[in-house]
Amino acid sequence: MKFTAEQIAGILDGTVVGDPNVEVSKLSKIEEGTHGSLTFLSNLKYTPYIYTTEASITIVNDNFEPEKPILTTLIKVEDAYEGFSKLLEYYDRIKSNKSGIEQPSFIAETTKLPENIYVGAFAYIGNNVQIGENVKVYPSAYIGDNVQIGDNTTIFPGGKIYSDCIIGKNCVINSGVIIGADGFGFAPTKDGGYSKIPQIGNVILEDYVDIGAGTTIDRATMGSTVIRSGVKLDNQIQIAHNVEIGKNTVIAAQTGVAGSTKIGEHCQIGGQVGIAGHLVIGNNVKVQAQSGIGRNVKDNEVLQGSPSFGYSDWNKSYVYFKNLPKLAKTINELEKKVDGNN
């Protein structure tokens, strides 16, 4: 698939400096650019490569002015990194533009599919499911009864959406994701065992939510587990029952959030973080990797450690922690001197 500089500039609302008819059919790093490839320059430390790259087209910030001759055609945009990301998204959408219903697949008689849809082989779609336009359900995906899915959402192979869950528009659900499995609810019994508490709620994903491969989001005991608009969850994350995650929050891999915790908007949570249940995490909170959160967190806090505390305090404390053997030796020597003087 080939694109001209003029076509790409039209997609990105950019300006061509050079040959508008030059064509590209592949992508490359700027330092590895070859004829027929497209690249971008956003990090200033890579600027020297723009004078040597053989890439046919380079996306740059609109304030970039070359200081010496270049071979590549430029497309100037407001933000080169954002522009390149937009182009990747556009290319991916074209590349994966499948349609139709493959066989064998199962679609319940009570479910009416729109004209523009893709259903892969061995997919299962249950009763009374509502599916929007341009939805893609890849092979071996499962969609339970009464599920609602908004326009332009993609469910990759092996994605599972249990009954009664609601998925918004423009969401991406990657392979192995399980949405709406039972929450971890058990009550102790008199005989020392446990009795299962029925989980009768659901999961709601709002619009533009991305869920990474292998991530699980449990249904609420009652009510809904809610993932707000623009949330991005990495691979292998566990979101427990009745959790709420505020809009545009991002969470890295292997993080676990226990039941009924509320996480605010625009938070950034690192990998392998553990968050206890029934907590309130404020807006714009940043949590460093491998931290343990066991208390409520105010807006704008930056945390590290397990249990976590203030990031700057953690760094200062760590200086002492790693020097504890030396400090202990010094204290022992001082004690001996004190004892010797008595």
From TrEMBL:
It holds the Pfam family LpxD. Coiled coil: none annotated. GO terms for molecular function: N-acyltransferase activity; UDP-3-O-[(3R)-3-hydroxyacyl]-glucosamine N-acyltransferase activity. Residues 21-89 form the UDP-3-O-[3-hydroxymyristoyl] glucosamine N-acyltransferase non-repeat region domain. Its EC number is 2.3.1.191. It catalyses: a UDP-3-O-[(3R)-3-hydroxyacyl]-alpha-D-glucosamine + a (3R)-hydroxyacyl-[ACP] = a UDP-2-N,3-O-bis[(3R)-3-hydroxyacyl]-alpha-D-glucosamine + holo-[ACP] + H(+). It comes from the Bacteria. GO terms for biological process: lipid A biosynthetic process. One of its GO terms (cellular component) is membrane. The active site is at 241 (proton acceptor). Keywords: Acyltransferase, Lipid A biosynthesis, Lipid biosynthesis, Lipid metabolism, Repeat, Transferase. Pathway: Bacterial outer membrane biogenesis; LPS lipid A biosynthesis. InterPro entries: Hexapep, LpxD, Trimer_LpxA-like_sf, UDP_GlcNAc_AcTrfase_non-rep. PANTHER family: UDP-3-O-ACYLGLUCOSAMINE N-ACYLTRANSFERASE (PTHR43378), UDP-3-O-ACYLGLUCOSAMINE N-ACYLTRANSFERASE 1, MITOCHONDRIAL-RELATED (PTHR43378:SF2). Belongs to the transferase hexapeptide repeat family. LpxD subfamily. Catalyzes the N-acylation of UDP-3-O-acylglucosamine using 3-hydroxyacyl-ACP as the acyl donor. Is involved in the biosynthesis of lipid A, a phosphorylated glycolipid that anchors the lipopolysaccharide to the outer membrane of the cell. Homotrimer. This is UDP-3-O-acylglucosamine N-acyltransferase. It comes from Winogradskyella eximia.
